[in-house]
Design brief:
about 325 residues; alpha+beta; Jelly Rolls; six-stranded antiparallel β-sheet; about 25% helix; globular; oxidoreductase; dioxygenase; 2-oxoglutarate-dependent dioxygenase activity; Phytyl_CoA_dOase-like; Phytanoyl-CoA dioxygenase
Length: about 325
Amino acid sequence: MNDTIDTIGKHSIRDRNPSTVGTAVTRLAPRGDRPLRVLSEGDWRHWEENGYVVIEGAVPRATVEGIGDLIWEFEGMDRTDPATWYPPEKSRLRRTELSYNAGMVELYHHQLLWDARQSPRVHGAFADLWGTEELWVSIDRVNLNLPPEPGFEFKSFMHFDYDPDGEADSVQGVLSIGDQVDPEVGGFVCIPELFRHYARWRARQPDDWDWYRPDVTGLPRVAVPLRKGDLLIFNSRLCHGIRQNISRDKVRMAQYIAMLPAREEDAAAREWRIRCWRERMAPQGYSLHGAAHGSRYDAAQLTPLGERLLGLASWRN
């Protein structure tokens, strides 16, 4: 059972989706003189200064449009009929569960989702940031952020998903399934100024500060516009959140994709990942609710790159 929206905090995060967790020695790569696969030099400078980078056209348009259709189908909604967008049970959950309030959808496995995960351009971008091609991809869900229904109160807040004082580096990623250039649609928002001056800001925080719900009053927030198929990658030390969709009839859709250095020596982690893919299991962890009917889709076919990103094949062969 997850804590309610009003009581949630760093104490609530007792376990996580295993596919999104690195190790204490996980480190992002310095620029050095190595060639970049996907990022430009300007992208790299933006990444270092602001804590995020946008990879344009990271996933083919046909795949992204297919994912959009899939989300509507999975949720049992008609995109042309807003009367179908607010079934009573989902409306109830949006009032009490933070993940539903923010638009999370418990869909993890489908050929199209894996096609996005095994996109060479997506892999190349993460390989640039980690300094290695030997990565594992996260097995994560999607987002459908609807216009507000009557009586709805949006309660998402600016946060860190990981303790920014922790030793390990981590990254997160958001693939835009539809254009997010209209401010009314909502979308990703962050505080690059805090990323740049974190140590100075942190020194002013109380000893018992809550990194999951930090007080960032007065700090400028930057909304990041995205086009369909763009991939936003951000450093987990970047304070971020989701802006509310305040439009009348538009939706915000996204798929969460990240990659971390592969841990091929961890047999238990590798076996869990393979089983998760093969049996279409929903990961367990904080704020995850499982997919009651996610296994109705067949196991995805993987490319040779996808097999390595899952852990089914070794990067060393």
